[in-house]
User: Fold this.
Amino acid sequence: MKRRRIITILGSICLVMVLAALTFIAACAPAPAPAPAPAPAPAPPSEVIVWRHQLYVKTVANPEFFLAEEFADEVFKRSNGRMQIDILPAGTLGYSGFELARVTAQGALEIATASGAHIASDQPAFDAMDQPFQFETWSSEYGKIEPRLAAEEALPIYNKIADKMNLVILGSFAFPDQLISTKKVDTVEKWKGLNLRTWGAVVSKTAEALGATTVTVPFSEAYTAFATGVAEGNVGNARSTRDNKFYEVVDYYLRWPLIAYSKFYVVNKQAWNALPPDLQDIVTDAANTMVRRMWEEEWMAEFDMQQELAAKGMQVVEISPEEIAKAKAIIEAKVWPEWLERAGDDGQALFDIFRKY
Assistant:
């Protein structure tokens, strides 16, 4: 009994010593490293700059629409969220295409895609690219597109004029507008008496000079006008002809090199000047990409779309160089001088550039 008590006491002493030793070891051991703190979330921009970009078109499938969205995405990404551009389809804010440059100049929009023909109602020099029969050959190769090369050289002059309007021009592109008609108008003589739907001063002057009769028809009513004979022709391009199904009521796509129908990316000058220099650079770079893609999608794709029209039953008709030369001589005598008188020195400077190509 005495021996069992001694063993119990010794066991207790040993247990106490072990516990004490463990406590001592734990106290002497280095403390474990603290868990790393989670990385702080990136701070949101203190102020996001928001621009509204009103388009001339409303169809999502139109290159002008989806390339504007890509432009906005690129600006947002490269600015790390400091700048946001909201894309507004045509009519979203109630402005017509004719008003877009004006309301942008007034500050109702920060940026818009505006027709050169509409800007020309305030500044006639903006009709420079649209003057008929300027470009004798219409190349489908990007490096040889005459209006594109001229437009790039002309950008400083466009911006000089735009400055007077409280605008900045980021760039421009054009459509190779030709003639669609219910009649085979493949000579200058056949223009005479043609009921041609017109949509701007340049088209009206061209029609009158070549002997056509001008007809005012809203674009929304053009299909019916062709079907009923109210209009027998229209100056337009293959995309418009295809997308609006004019091939159902119009027989001929006639490759008269009529008009490089221009559009411009216009920016309100105060909105532009308010951007920090780095954001101006980002917007400019992204706009240059958008402009290049628009030339590819609208000008270069024109020739493939003409083949689509042929597959749908339209006759795509080449015009002889002799007939083009006759038409051009008439335009040189009757249309260009009158426009140059209205467009002044700036118009002459632009015209000199476009005539080089």
About this structure: Residues 49-355 form a domain with the D-Maltodextrin-Binding Protein; domain 2 fold (CATH 3.40.190.170). The first strand starts at residue 49 and ends at 54. DSSP finds 13 helices and nine strands in the chain. The chain has one domain: 49-355.
